[in-house]
Amino acid sequence: MRWIAILSIIFLTAACELDATAPSGSISSGDVIEVAEIPFGAEQAQVTRVIDGDTIDVAINGQTFRVRYVGVNTPERDEPCYQEAVSANRALVENQTVWLVKDTSDTDRYDRLLRYIYVGNVFVNATLVYQGYAEVVRYDPDDEYFTYFRDLEDAADAADRGCHQTTIFDDGSYTR
After folding, report:
1. What confidence score (pLDDT) does residue 18 get?
2. Cα-flanking dihedrals φ and ψ of residue 150, to 5°?
3. For 33, which of 20, 112, 121, 156 is 20 to 30 Å away at the CA?
4. Are strands 27-29 and 32-34 parallel, antiparallel or unpaired?
5. Cis link prior to 80 (omega < 30° from 0)?
6. Distance between CA 123 and CA 27 in Å, rounded?
7. CB atoms < 10 A from the CB of 135, how many?
8. Is residue 146 a contact partner of residue 139, using CB atoms and an 8 Å limit?
9. What sign has the CA pseudo-torsion 93, 94, 99, 105?
């Protein structure tokens, strides 16, 4: 009986730790990551162009902004799996109304907005990692979902999904 109590405590502790790193109510539904609700402070935008696997152009109140996805990185134009990552991103966001959520920083050194992206309840950044088309990258101070994304990447790698088959993400680093 004592072992059951100890195992229950361990299980509940582990569950609480996972919830602390994942968006509220996030679940894997097929090949996408969904959330119960879009985080507070989200800003609505219309995708006007998919630039690559982790960058889009959006229209907000008639103005165009370039948006770089927070916490993830996809292969560049001259790297293996580039086109597959672009196609995966395009399938999720092309011509869609999206919700943009800021972590800490507003823009990067190239004046791109830094945001988490949602289409309906689909968490795009997380979905690209889960599908294996993006790797997790820690860009301090924007690291709210770093641990969660790392867990998703480990699962994608173990399942050999997406770009993991090419070993493009096997540099052993979470920083750029």
Report:
1. 40
2. -60, -40
3. 112
4. antiparallel
5. no
6. 10
7. 29
8. no
9. positive
Q: With CA atoms as reference, report the closest residue to 134 among 67, 79, 94, 58.
A: 79
Q: What is the dihedral of CA 98, 99, 101, 107, to 10 degrees?
A: 40
Q: Set out the domains of the chain in order of their start, with CATH numbers.
A: 2-166 (2.40.50.90)
| Cα–Cα distance measured from residue 165 to residue 175, given in angstroms and rounded to the nearest whole number | 21
Give CA separation, 135 vs 4, 45, 62, 173, in Å.
38, 25, 32, 10
The residue with tokens 């361990």 is 10
Q: How far is CA 14 from CA 20, 59, 103, 158, in A?
A: 10, 41, 25, 21
Could you list the active site residues? Answer: 68, 76, 112
Dihedral-angle region of residue 133 (phi above 0 means left; psi in -120 to 50 means alpha; beta otherwise): alpha
pLDDT tens digits along 153-168: 999 999 999 999 998 8
How sure is the predictor about 171, in pLDDT bands with cuts at 50, 70 and 90? confident
Tokens read off for 132: 């294996």
Distance from the Cα of residue 48 to its chain's centroid: 20
As given in the structure block, the two tokens for residue 98 are 């999206």
Strand pairing partners for 46?
59, 97
Task: State pLDDT tens for residues 25-46.
Answer: 555 556 899 999 999 999 999 9
d(CA 152, CA 33): 10
